[in-house]
Specification:
Elements (H helix, E strand, L loop, with lengths): L1 H20 L11 E4 L3 E5 L5 E10 L3 E9 L10 E11 L4 E12 L8 E14 L8 E9 L3 E7 L2
Amino acid sequence: MNRTTRLTALAVAALAGPAIAVPAVAAPKPLVDLRGADVGTYVLDATGAAQLAGSVTGDPFDGTYVATLAADDGSLPAPGTCEPATGALDVNSSKRTLHLDAVGEVCGEFADATYVVTHRFVGHYVVADATSRRLRGSDGWISLVLATEGRANVEAFDS
């Protein structure tokens, strides 16, 4: 009986062992993970679109950016309201380029002395063009933020 008990225990341990010993598999590194490196700037053009500029850091590379945020009706929404919008983000370094096209929604924010954001665009982007072919067609989440005094920021993440 003692031998049977030991054999049973060994069999159970042998079956349970691989399930316990399986290492966790890490998620793949995102292809795009960009954040504003500092506070950017923006101006409104004659069509009512915001033209953003600044620098980003992250993956696939650090660089300077220009971006466009345009509400579908041609004017940015008032505080407390949202509307459909499009965005574009171009990132450049000395040897690489990346172009994202985005669709989403821009919302007007109530800015005050402590909360300086005036408009926030959140959307879904697709990499329309890039120096690296593996990036083309990838997609993810993007945010374009406008703040008081002509300040701006961008984020894009391959989700």
